[in-house]
Write a structure and sequence with these properties.
By secondary structure, this protein is α/β, with parallel strands linked by helices. It contains 6 helices and 6 strands, in the order βαααβαβαβββα.
Length: 154
């Protein structure tokens, strides 16, 4: 609707205008949006790139030692951006995606859908969600743990 203001527990803003100093942490949901819009992983695999505004914000948050959560396929974004730091992340048990993550320099940790992998030093939290989940209940268990961990690390 023209002129309508989008809201989600606050005013929705273009990621290009957000600065790390304005937020306590960052969580990237997964799905096709992460693989096709936030990055081009769906098309280029480990040779992917990350949207410039998304990369800038994530790097600012990481440099400020604030937590980042990555859900489902979104850990490929963290692998691309922070693989040189050998971050520990998970996408569950998919061997091909795990190999891609490791090609980008990150350490993949196999993980069940209901759990999370926390890289305390890098303040990075990941969970497989729909990389493994067969229903919303399974995905929710790991996602809820991820959110609690990101809040704890903030």
């Amino acid at each position: 609707m023209p002129g309508a203001e989008l809201r989600a527990r606050g005013k929705v803003r273009d990621v290009a205008s957000v600065k790390a100093g304005e937020i306590d942490g960052l969580i990237f949901p997964g799905g096709f949006g992460a693989a096709k819009n936030l990055s081009d992983y769906a098309f280029k695999g480990p040779d992917c790139s990350v949207n410039a505004d998304v990369a800038r914000l994530a790097k600012e948050v990481h440099a400020a030692h604030k937590p980042i959560g990555v859900v489902c396929i979104a850990p490929v974004i963290a692998a691309k951006l922070f693989g040189a730091d050998h971050v520990k992340i998970t996408i569950g048990t998919d061997k091909n995606t795990a190999k891609d993550i490791e090609k980008m320099g990150a350490q993949h940790v196999a993980c069940p859908v209901s759990e999370i992998v926390v890289d305390e030093e890098q303040k990075l939290v990941s969970t497989p969600a729909y990389m493994l989940a067969k229903n919303i209940r399974e995905a929710a268990e790991g996602i809820e743990k991820l959110v609690r961990a990101v809040i704890r690390l903030a």
